[in-house]
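BUG: 3D viewer hangs when loading the predicted structure for this chain

Environment: internal workstation, default settings.
Expected: structure renders.
Actual: progress bar stalls at 90%.

Input used:
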Amino acid sequence: MTELWGVLTRHFPEFASGFFITVRLVAISFVIAMGIGITVAALRIAPARPLRWLGTTYVEIFRNIPLLV
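Structure tokens produced before the viewer hung:
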């Protein structure tokens, strides 16, 4: 147990750096995903048929990727 604690305390700056990089990547990914999600949702409820088709096509492609794989 003391060996583990020694490793954690010795390498804490590296662990902290990795943690903050991970948090930054999550925040950036969240913003991008929300932007894409809102755009596709707006396309799916658009009054123009070609825009609805574009939004539906995007959703169906990503929804069916697991089946294709």
